[in-house]
Amino acid sequence: MHNSGKVERYDGATGAHVGTFITGCPNGNGIAWGPDGNLYVSTGNVFGPGTVKRFDGTTGRFIDDFVAYPPDTNGYLCRGSGLTFHEGRLYVSSIDNAKIVCYDGATGAWVSDFAEGSKVGVTMIAFDGGALHGADFQTGSVRKYNGVTGKSEGDLTRVPGIAPWGLAFDAQGHLYWSGSDHTIRRHDGRTNVA
Length: 194
Hints:
Low-confidence stretches: none
Order of helices and strands: EEEEEEEEEEEEEEEEEEE
CATH superfamily: YVTN repeat-like/Quinoprotein amine dehydrogenase
C-alpha cells in the first residue's frame, strides 16, 4: 500500500481479495480502526514529514488529515508508522526521529512525546495488558514500555539476527511479530515463551 496509495480489503475467513477500499493515500505505512469507526492511516517517506489521515470506515472516503504538524513543532511525525488507539489517546511511532507520539484520540491534538526508541527503529506498536510494545527494527527486539509513563521496561523478546517489523496481540495475550527473515513468530505476550 505504501507505493500504490491504496488500502485493499480481504475476506477475514478465506483471505480472498474483496476489493480496493481506499485510493489516493500516498506513502501509507500503518492502519488502525478508530473508536469512531473510521480508518486511520499513518503516512510518510524515509526522513520525510508524516501525517495520520482519516477515512470513512464504511465508504473509504477521505475525511481529513487528523494529525499533520510541521517540522520543528510538537506533534511532528518524521515518517509516521505504527499507530494504535488506547484509552482515548492515539499513539503513533515517528520512526525516523525515534519517538512514539501521543495525541488526543478525538481531536488529534498533541499531548506528549510519550516514549523513545532507537533512530529508524520503532516500526509498529500495540498495547497489551496496559503496556505499550514496539517492534524495534534497529535493536532487533520487541521493546516493552510502561503504559502510563512511557518509560522503557526493556526487551520483551529478541531473536538473534532477526529484526522485527510488525506486531499484534490476540485476545489470549499471544504476541505475533513479523521478522526480517520473512517469518511470523508467536510468543506468550507476558512470559515470552515461544
